[in-house]
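Exam revision sheet. Question 4 asks you to relate a sequence to its structure. Input first:
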Amino acid sequence: MVFNGKAIKYGDNVDTDVIIPARYLNTIDKKELASHCMEDIDKDFVKKVNAGDIMIAGNNFGCGSSREHAPIAIKESGISLVIAKSFARIFYRNSINIGLAIVECPEAAEGISEGDTVEADLDNGVIYNRTTGKSFETKPFPEFIQKIIANGGLVESIRRGDIK
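Answer key, C-alpha cells:
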C-alpha cells in the first residue's frame, strides 16, 4: 500500500472530542461528520484537506472516548493515512476496523512539517518526505491489515471472506 499526499500536522494529545466534537455525534452521516472534522482545533481543516492527504500528529493521538466517529470523520474528510508518534489504543483499533490506514513512526512525525509532500510505502515500511528528501523506516503493514484497509474496514473484509 502506497499513500501520497500533503501533510496536515497536529501536536500531542489530540483527543476524539477535538477530532469530532460531541455536539455532532447525533448523526451517523459520514459526510456530515467529515464536514466538522477538526473544527475545534483547526477551523480551516475541511477547506484545506484534499483526497489523499496525510495527517501527521504527535503523541497520544485519538485519546479520549472510544467513539468510532473520530476515525470515520478523518477518513471521510479525505485523509488517506495518519502518521503519529503514538496513538491511543482504542483509536488505533477503531481506525483499522473502519479502514483508515494508521501507523506509528515517531521519527516521521517529527521530521515532516505542515505542507510537506509525503509518500508512505507501507508494504516495504518506508515513509518519504519528498519535500526534504528524508526517509523514515517503519514496520510494514501485516497482510491482514492491508486486506482490512483495502476492503474499507473489518466488516467489509469479513463479508468478502478475506478475514475469518
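Marking note for examiners. The radius of gyration is 15 Å.
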